[in-house]
Write a structure and sequence with these properties.
Distance between the termini of chain A: 23 Å
Shape of chain B: rod-shaped
Number of helices of chain B: 1
Strand content of chain B: under 5%
Distance between the termini of chain B: 48 Å
Oligomer: heterodimer
Largest sheet of chain B: none
Number of strands of chain A: 0
Order of helices and strands of chain B: H
Order of helices and strands of chain A: HHHHHHH
Strand content of chain A: under 5%
Radius of gyration of chain A: 23 Å
C-alpha cells in the first residue's frame, strides 16, 4: 500500500480567512444581539433570539437553493460532474443542520412569546416538512448505484424539494398563522425595524453566509477525499487479487 | 433580562451546533487526508 509522504488536509488560505472572518462576525453578532441592541417594545428581550433564528433560516434556504442549482447542472450534464454533485450534497447537509437549528431556536422563541414550544401552525408545519424532505434527499444520496446514477437520482429530488421554500415563506399569508410576518420588509416593502436591530440582523446574515461558504468548501473536499480513498482501496484490492492469481493460471 | 435561559440557550444551541459540525468535519478531513497524496487534492 502506498502511503503519501505529506498529508495536507482540506484547509487552504482562503478557507482559513473565511473561517476567521466567520468567527469574528459571530462574536460581533453575540455582542450586538445579547448586549448592544435594544429590547423590542412588544416582545421585550425575546427578540434577541431573532438574531440567530433568522440568519439560520437564511442559511438553510441559501443551502437548499445552491443544492437545487447544482442539481439542475448535474441533470443537464447527465450526472458526469462529480464536483458539482458533491457541492449539492455538501450544501444540503449544511442546510439540514441549520434548519434543525432554526426549528429548535424557533421553539425556544415560541415558548417565550406563545407560551408553548410547538404549535401545528402553518409556518412551523411547513418548515418541519421542508426539514424532513431534505433528510429524505440525504437518504436518497446514500442509496446504491453508480456515482452517475446516484447523482442523477438525488438531483431530481434536489430540484423538486426546493419548490417547498416559497410555500414555507408564504405560509404566513396563505393560512392563518401564529408566526409573525416578514421581520425586515413589510408588505409595502418599507423597512419596519429599528436601525441597530437591522444592523445586528445584517451582521448575523453576513456571519452565517461566511459559515456556509466555509462549511461547503470543507465538506465538498471531505467528500472528494472519501471518494479518492474508496477508489484507491478498490485499485489496491484488485492489484492484490491479480498478484494472487498465478501468471496464465485460473483461480 | 427576561427569559434569559431561553435566549442564552438559543445562542449556545446555534454556535454549539456550528462548533460540533465543524469539529467533526475537520477530524474526518484529517483522518482521510493521510490516505491521499497531496497531488490528488485538487484544492492544493
Amino acid at each position: 500500500m502506498t502511503t503519501p509522504t505529506t498529508s495536507r488536509s482540506t484547509g487552504t488560505r482562503a478557507t482559513r480567512v473565511i473561517g476567521i472572518a466567520a468567527i469574528v462576525m459571530s462574536a460581533w453578532l453575540s455582542l450586538f444581539g445579547l448586549v448592544l441592541s435594544p429590547a423590542d417594545v412588544a416582545q421585550g428581550d425575546a427578540v434577541r433570539i431573532m438574531y440567530v433564528h433568522v440568519p439560520s433560516v437564511w442559511l438553510a434556504y441559501l443551502a437548499f437553493i445552491v443544492t437545487a442549482i447544482c442539481s439542475v447542472w448535474v441533470l443537464v450534464a447527465r450526472g458526469r460532474v462529480p464536483g458539482v454533485d458533491r457541492v449539492a450534497g455538501a450544501s444540503a447537509e449544511i442546510g439540514v443542520v441549520f434548519m434543525a437549528v432554526t426549528l429548535v431556536s424557533g421553539m425556544l422563541w415560541g415558548r417565550i412569546t406563545w407560551g408553548v414550544y410547538w404549535q401545528w401552525d402553518a409556518r412551523l408545519t411547513t418548515t418541519a416538512l421542508l426539514f424532513i424532505t431534505y433528510i429524505g434527499y440525504l437518504a436518497v444520496r446514500g442509496l446504491e448505484g453508480s456515482p452517475e446514477q446516484r447523482a442523477r437520482r438525488s438531483a431530481v429530488v434536489g430540484v423538486v424539494a426546493v419548490a417547498e421554500i416559497p410555500l414555507v415563506h408564504w405560509s404566513v399569508r396563505l393560512w392563518r398563522s401564529l408566526h409573525q410576518e416578514a421581520t425586515v420588509l413589510d408588505t409595502d416593502l418599507d423597512v419596519d425595524i429599528d436601525g441597530l436591530m437591522l444592523f445586528t440582523l445584517f451582521v448575523g446574515v453576513i456571519a452565517f453566509t461566511l459559515w456556509f461558504v466555509w462549511f461547503v468548501l470543507h465538506r465538498a473536499r471531505v467528500m472528494a477525499l472519501a471518494a479518492l480513498v474508496e477508489e484507491r482501496s478498490l485499485d489496491e484490492a484488485l492489484a492484490e487479487r491479480a498478484a494472487e492469481v498465478p501468471a496464465g493460471g485460473q483461480n | 433580562m427576561e427569559s434569559i435561559e431561553f435566549i442564552i440557550g438559543s445562542y449556545l444551541l446555534t454556535f454549539g451546533a456550528i462548533a460540533v459540525v465543524a469539529g467533526r468535519m475537520l477530524r474526518r478531513a484529517r483522518s482521510l487526508s493521510h490516505r491521499v497524496p497531496d497531488e490528488e487534492k485538487y484544492w492544493l
